[in-house]
Amino acid sequence: MAWLYLILAGLSEMLGVTFMNWALHQRKWWLWGLMILTFTLSFGGLELALQTLPMGTAYAIWTGIGAAGGVITGMLFFGESKDWRKLLWVVVILTAVMGLKLIS
């Protein structure tokens, strides 16, 4: 169950950053509310995962999911560069996350 909490926490982190970017550009109060909600869920999921998983592994996976998801979201929704080298490094991050899962 800890791994599920951790994955959901990472995805919530990615959504939090996405809502933050939208809120900064659109100045809508409900976007700020969604940002706060998703970051709260993210930290809550990380807290639940840390009750079972080692801190170093959990934190690395949480930030990896958030970072890779943030880059992909930026490419899909905010017109950021889709350079193949950027995608290559996202694959490296995701591979490292999977590797940490396999050895934990």
From TrEMBL:
The keyword Ubl conjugation does not apply. The chain crosses the membrane at residues 6-24, 31-53, 59-79, 86-103. It comes from the Bacteria. It is found in: Cell membrane. It is a multi-pass membrane protein. Keywords: Cell membrane, Membrane, Transmembrane, Transmembrane helix, Transport. Pfam families: Multi_Drug_Res. The keyword Phosphoprotein does not apply. Belongs to the drug/metabolite transporter (DMT) superfamily. Small multidrug resistance (SMR) (TC 2.A.7.1) family. This is DMT family transporter. It comes from Levilactobacillus fujinensis.
